[in-house]
Amino acid sequence: MNLKFEKSKLKRELQRSGKEYSFKRAEENEFGEKNGNCIEVGTLKAIYHESNGHISTTQGDATIYRKLKTPMLLCLYDDATFLNVGDTTIINGKEFKVTGLVNIQEWGIIGDVSLEVIDDGTV
Questions:
Q1: Residue 122 φ/ψ, nearest 5 degrees
Q2: What sign does the dihedral 101-96-88-90 (CA atoms) show?
Q3: Please, are residues 37 and 26 in contact by the beta-carbon 8 Å criterion?
Q4: Residue 49 pLDDT more than 80?
Q5: When comparing pLDDT for 77 and 68, which is higher?
Q6: Whether the Cβ atoms of residue 75 and residue 14 lie closer than 8 Å to each other
């Protein structure tokens, strides 16, 4: 596998279709408690996509499946290493929380940031 070529392909796609996302992190006091303030920790050029999953529930004799979409950001792995679980970003007017960073194929080239919508119940 030519890893330089794979990295070049992703860089080209990010230049063509990528978008800048800024991330914030809640400040903490000396005891590790959040104090309500947020600081910007960085920006990331990435491509938004959704991964499909499913939730199954059992009701009596039948099983009901519901599709669950997991929002994700495809990016260069090295560019996303500043992120921590719990950092937040705004995408299309909705606030998302970072839930993880996956190193695709363990190459250290392609990163996939998993997100979760923060639902405050107002919409």
A1: -90, -20
A2: positive
A3: yes
A4: yes
A5: 77
A6: yes
Give CA separation, 119 vs 60, 94, 95, 103, in Å.
30, 9, 8, 27
Q: How many helices (H) and strands (E) does the chain have?
A: 1, 6
**Rounded to the nearest 5°, which phi and psi values hold at 15?**
-65, -35
Residue 54 reports pLDDT greater than 70: no
- pTM assigned to the model: 0.82
Length of the chain: 123
What gap in Å lies between CA 6 and CA 13, rounded to an integer? Answer: 11
DSSP state, residue 48: E
pLDDT band per the 50, 70, 90 thresholds, residue 31: confident
